[in-house]
């Protein structure tokens, strides 16, 4: 099961094919983005909201607010918990903890997925301890009740001790699960509806363009952080800090301006130019500009995921509250690679990608976010301000506010 407090390598290089930049987005979309980014960079600016956004600090530290988020967002909303690739074979399973809910997701023989509360129907033990694997049955360690991968209770030792029990009614409790575009979504409450098409809306096409279904997981890690889960998402939603905080890492190849932002229902995406954008494209006629190599696309998937497209690969992050404490969260990171057999030369490249992600976010963004969390707890101020240039943050927090108000 998941451990906290450490960065842990939970994956091995795996099967993978990923779309080239050419294929990932359609030409009309890239042309539109190219024109917009070119105009912004030429004017030495970035896309701006009409006004600044005032964000209450209490949303990050108040236990009552955290409780509402848990009940309304992290119990009722579809949450990305795995890739389809991680559950490719019949019997493949993964366990996941979502702020107190332990679930196990299993690939069925007919190719569908099922998910269950990872809780024994005898006296309530966790049934599956491993984070992932392949199994035909799951045996609870306490008294060896045996469940099938379909959740059915298959065997009870000394069954005569449970004379009135109907085994058919003692299977693992099912949870709603669905997959789309190579990603797996879970709703951690039994009986909740799960309609991914209406939930994703316009984000569905944006995710399809990432072509994650064709990719594999090069590496997956999870780790605990002492910060509110929203600060993890906030990290990825503005470029303003890039030339200031990341001078030695991503600041070397990413612009601090020129980004464009698109709201997609309760989700959004944010397109950021690389430093190569202007040098490569400034003398190219607009209809001949190919921006694929000179941008990255940051998809924010409501409520808690960020799926980042970077030319030849995708990385994605999720953050969930942890332990019912607004000051803690569990972060999960997947790096998808495009090759089935990772050659030595390719391995160097993917290890380097992984190192860049870790060095930047773990060593630079999250320590900063931890100081924010402490500052929020210290009562210095009751609100912070998102600048007109931090438009991705406006949209994220507005979407959260609307979802909590509507529930
Ligand atoms: S608690 Fe699982 S078999 Fe007893
Ligand atoms: Fe950053």
Automatic annotation (TrEMBL):
<dbReference type="GO" id="GO:0051213">
    <property type="term" value="F:dioxygenase activity"/>
</dbReference>
<dbReference type="Pfam" id="PF00355">
    <property type="entry name" value="Rieske"/>
</dbReference>
<dbReference type="InterPro" id="IPR017941">
    <property type="entry name" value="Rieske_2Fe-2S"/>
</dbReference>
<dbReference type="InterPro" id="IPR015879">
    <property type="entry name" value="Ring_hydroxy_dOase_asu_C_dom"/>
</dbReference>
<dbReference type="GO" id="GO:0005506">
    <property type="term" value="F:iron ion binding"/>
</dbReference>
<dbReference type="InterPro" id="IPR036922">
    <property type="entry name" value="Rieske_2Fe-2S_sf"/>
</dbReference>
<keyword id="KW-0411">Iron-sulfur</keyword>
<protein>
    <submittedName>
        <fullName>Aromatic ring-hydroxylating dioxygenase subunit alpha</fullName>
    </submittedName>
</protein>
<dbReference type="GO" id="GO:0051537">
    <property type="term" value="F:2 iron, 2 sulfur cluster binding"/>
</dbReference>
<keyword id="KW-0479">Metal-binding</keyword>
<feature type="domain" description="Rieske">
    <location>
        <begin position="80"/>
        <end position="186"/>
    </location>
</feature>
<keyword id="KW-0001">2Fe-2S</keyword>
<keyword id="KW-0408">Iron</keyword>
<keyword id="KW-0560">Oxidoreductase</keyword>
<keyword id="KW-0223">Dioxygenase</keyword>
<dbReference type="InterPro" id="IPR001663">
    <property type="entry name" value="Rng_hydr_dOase-A"/>
</dbReference>
<dbReference type="Pfam" id="PF00848">
    <property type="entry name" value="Ring_hydroxyl_A"/>
</dbReference>
